[in-house]
């Protein structure tokens, strides 16, 4: 894997992590929070 690809994948992972954190902070419902966490766990496997 080239250095550019590694940088891009690291940046994309950080962007996804920030989006997940933002979604978790913005929801009040425990059910929605659980769904977001389940989707995030599936994505990183």
What topology emerges from the helices and strands here?
Layout: H1 3-26, H2 30-43
- SSE class: mainly alpha
Main beta-sheet annotation:
none
Return the average pLDDT rounded to an integer. 92
User: What percent of residues are in strands?
Assistant: under 5%
Ranges where pLDDT stays below 50 over 5 or more residues in a row are none
Query: Helical segment tally?
Result: 2
| N→C terminal distance | 20 Å
- Percent helix, as a range, is over 70%
Could you give the count of β-strands?
A: 0
Net shape: elongated
Radius of gyration, CA atoms, in whole angstroms = 13 Å
Tell me the series of helices and strands, N- to C-terminal: HH
Domain module tally: 1
List keywords for this structure.
84% helix, mainly alpha, 2 helices
In short:
The protein is mostly helical and 45 residues long. It has helices at 3-26, 30-43.
